[in-house]
Amino acid sequence: RISWISNIVVVVSPENIETMKSIIEKYGHKRVLVVKGGMTRHRSIFNGLKVFAEKEFSNHLLQKPEVVIIHDAVRPFVEEDILSKVVLAAKEHGAAGAIRPLVSTVIASAADGCLDHSLERARYRASEMPQAFLFDVIYEAYQQCTDYDLDYGTECLHLALKYCKTNAKLVEGTADLWKVTYRRDLYAAESIIKDNLSQRVCVITDVKEAVAQVGFLLHESLKSQIKVEAISISPSKNDSLLQNMFSGQCYNFVHVNVSSKDA
C-alpha cells in the first residue's frame, strides 16, 4: 500500500515458497519477489539482499536501491510513518532502527542459578523493527560477516557498526511494533485488533427477505451498542467483485445465513 517502496522481497523457508507464490498470485500482489531463506535470521536477510547485487542468485535481478528496509513479518501492524522516519534517518546516518522502552527489568543469573545483577531499565531500550540502511552499508557488512555472525547473530544494526563503522540512528517506535507470537504478545495483539480493526463491520446477507431483515436488525443493534460502521450488502457469486469492493479497506465480516431447518 506504500507507493514509494519500489520492491518487496519476501524471504521464506524453502518448503513454503510455493505456498507464498500462490498467495501472491491469488491476491494480485505487485512488486513482490519470493526468495528462499537460510537456516538463520542473518542468512535469510543476506539471501534477500543478494537479489539486488548477485545475478546468479536470482533469475530477476532487481535494481539496487539507495535504502533498504528490513522488517519482520511477525510485526504486521507497522505504519507508514515509522517506515518513513527510519528511511530518512538511514539516508542521513547510514543506518537507523526503531526502539521501544523496556517493559521488564533485565537480569543476569550467576553460575549457581542465583541473581548476579540487574540492568538499570531507564538506560536501555528494546531494539525493534523496521530497520533501514543505505544498501551499500548493510550489503558490505553482510559480505564481511563471519560464519559465527551469520549463525548466531540477530542484530543488523550491530553488523553495520562492527564492519562498516556506521553508528545507527535510533528512532522512537510506536506501541504496535511488537511481534505476534504464541507468548503473552498474543494478548496485546488481540487488544490492538479490537481497538483498530473492529471499528468497521460489514454485515453480509443473502437476498432472501428474512435473512436481509436479520442483517438489518444486526446492523441497527451494532450501531446502538458500539461505535462501528456497519454495511449491509447482498453477496455476489463473483468473488472478484467483492474483493474489488473492499480493496484497501479493513473490515470485520459478519455473514448472516439460515439453514433449511430454520427456513
UniProtKB/TrEMBL annotation:
Cytidylyltransferase required for protein O-linked mannosylation. Catalyzes the formation of CDP-ribitol nucleotide sugar from D-ribitol 5-phosphate. CDP-ribitol is a substrate of FKTN during the biosynthesis of the phosphorylated O-mannosyl trisaccharide (N-acetylgalactosamine-beta-3-N-acetylglucosamine-beta-4-(phosphate-6-)mannose), a carbohydrate structure present in alpha-dystroglycan (DAG1), which is required for binding laminin G-like domain-containing extracellular proteins with high affinity. Its EC number is 2.7.7.40. It comes from Leptosomus discolor (Madagascar cuckoo roller). InterPro entries: IspD/TarI (IPR034683), ISPD_C (IPR040635), ISPD_synthase_CS (IPR018294), Nucleotide-diphossugar_trans (IPR029044). Homodimer. One of its GO terms (cellular component) is cytosol. Keywords: Cytoplasm, Nucleotidyltransferase, Transferase. One of its GO terms (molecular function) is D-ribitol-5-phosphate cytidylyltransferase activity. It is found in: Cytoplasm, Cytosol. Its main location: cytoplasm. This is D-ribitol-5-phosphate cytidylyltransferase.
